[in-house]
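dude i think i finally got it to work??
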Amino acid sequence: MDKNEAIKKVKPQLTVKRFEHTLRVAETAVELAERFQVSQDKAELAAIFHDYAKFRPVEEMRRIILTSPLPNDLLFYHQELWHAPVGAILVKEEHGIQDQLVLGAIHNHTTGKAHMNKLEMIVLLADYIEPGRSFPGLDEVRNMAKEDLTHACWLSIRNSIQFLMGKGSRIYPDTIHAYNDLTRHVNGGY
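look at this
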């Protein structure tokens, strides 16, 4: 599926603000893909669809989680996490996207996971650093994203965990696993 077709399919699913965010994420993902030698087409497609299910009704997402191979433990965590794995399922079912790398990047862009591939890291990072975002610690991640994809992802996951802990929120286990795996790479195997 080409960029224009994907945009046409995504735009009606999003608010104007979220659609503009999506376009910035796609642009950022393409830049990162070029920098870190990953398919720019796959990065762009995954980024365009990354928030496809963001505004689906909660009950629809709950039903999809319960009737799909997704882990039911998602239901015990904040609904903000649901749109990513549910979105990967809907993109496959509603638009016939079969590329497992693209679907994995959509699925994991909110939580991360251990052993992420470069495309998964790029979409997660592009969503975090896109130019419309502004919050403490972002400049450090943006600067690192110019040099080291793994280290930049580690910083973004670390910051997200610190933010969630500061709010007293629960942290999805995949995010902890992502942090531990990325820490091992950043710290040279320790």
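The chain has a mean pLDDT of 97.
im so relieved honestly
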